Amino acid sequence: MTPEQLNIFFEVLGYVGMGLVLLSFLMKNMIWLRIINLTGSIICGIYGLWTKTYPTLILNAGLAVINIVMLTRSVIVWRMAQVAKKHDPSEPFEPVELPKEEDSNK
Question: Which distant-in-sequence residues (6+ apart) come within 8 Å of 65 by Cβ?
Fold first, then answer.
């Protein structure tokens, strides 16, 4: 690829990433919103790195981290809901002992 073709490729890639970020806000399902937004943020971050537009890179890196954290939380809650659905309501859950916290006033 010539340098000009490479620049055009990354320019198109930047527009694709931007489109994915915008498209993500139309999602009704939060997990899909996070997945599409994360993909768009990563692509836009690559574009920002290539074009040396560091504010774009930093913004999209931050968005990617936020999306990863929130997506992880959403998946954990979804899995907990799946376990709760399978639980027979006539049987109580087994109690779970929580670790004792040390008294900080000592």
Answer: none
CB contact at 8 A, 67 and 44? no
pLDDT digits (tens, 9 = 90+) for 39-86: 999 999 999 999 999 999 999 999 999 999 999 999 898 888 888 777
Under a CB-based contact definition with an 8 Å cutoff, are residues 30 and 74 in contact?
A: yes
User: Taking phi first (over 0 means left), then psi (-120 to 50 degrees means alpha), and beta for anything else, what does residue 35 get?
Assistant: alpha
pTM over 0.70: yes
Sign of CA dihedral 51, 54, 60, 65: positive
The amino acid present at 79, given as its one-letter code, is R
**CA dist., res. 93 & res. 87, Å (int):** 8
Q: What's the rounded Cα separation, in Å, for the pair 56 and 54?
A: 5
Half-sphere exposure of 77 (CA within 13 A, CB side): 8
Q: Can you list the pairs that 20-28 forms with residues at least 24 positions away whose Cβ atoms lie under 8 Å?
A: 21/63
